[in-house]
UniProtKB/TrEMBL annotation:
Pfam families, per database record: SIMPL
Species, as recorded: Herpetosiphon geysericola
PANTHER family named among the record's database cross-references: SLR1258 PROTEIN
One GO BP: DNA damage response
Protein name: SIMPL domain-containing protein
Domain of life: Bacteria
Length: 221
């Protein structure tokens, strides 16, 4: 026999700050190097890598993603030009403005995108679930008191997670900023980049709880 149920839903929202970022950069190179040695052998790529590592970025934070060679008349030569795509990891957001300044100061570099990473701590997520469940309990208690029923147990619990965040800058704004730096602009700011140096997203934890109830015989409307 199916028990009498009181279905209650609740949600808990929390804003969290990004704690890391990944920067995508394209570089126009004057030669084709088709493997990771491009970080050392492709002149334009090497210049950026040296500038970043001289600043203090670990070389392991720089990865070659792709190489697209430009072919003339169907012939690919070692001296052909190429476009290199690099992924640069920034684990300390305090360094992000400086890293972006170094990248955009390179003549052949084009800043394509910055993607944000967020904490993924199970203990933190459990805290949010607990908060959502506490809200559901309080809501169920108020409903039960008003409806004249008693909560005697829990039949089922479902949870769901969602998040939303919005980039502060589009690719066109990044390219505009890079052009500004190459044309003699000095310094870098969130306004010139169109990029907020602190990025947040909202986490929402939803829970739905089916409480088992029994009728309170003393209740009357």
């Amino acid at each position: 026999m199916e028990p009498n149920l009181l279905n209650v839903s609740s949600s808990y929202r929390q804003l969290i700050d990004a704690n890391r970022a990944e920067i995508t950069v394209r570089i126009k190179g004057s030669s084709v190097i088709s493997n990771n040695t491009a970080l050392e052998k492709a002149k334009e790529v090497r210049q950026l890598v040296e500038a970043l590592t001289s600043y203090g970025l670990d070389k392991t934070a720089i990865q070659l993603q792709s190489v697209v060679a430009e072919v003339n008349n169907g012939v690919l030569l070692r001296s052909s030009s190429a476009t290199y795509s690099l992924l640069i990891r920034c684990d300390d957001l305090e360094q992000l403005p400086d890293l972006l300044g170094i990248i955009t100061s390179q003549k052949q570099a084009s800043l394509e995108n910055v993607s944000w990473g967020f904490p993924d701590d199970p203990a933190m997520i459990n805290t949010w679930v607990q908060a959502a469940l506490e809200l559901a309990k309080a809501k169920a208690k108020a409903m039960a008191q008003t409806l004249g029923v008693r909560i005697i147990g829990v039949h089922r619990v479902d949870d769901q997670y969602g998040s939303e965040h919005h980039p502060y800058a589009q690719d066109a704004e990044f390219r505009k900023s890079a052009s500004f730096m190459r044309s003699g602009g000095s310094g870098i700011s969130k306004d010139s980049l169109g990029l907020a140096m602190i990025h947040r997203k909202q986490i929402e934890v939803k829970v739905q709880v089916a409480f088992i109830i029994s009728q309170d015989e003393n209740f009357s409307i």
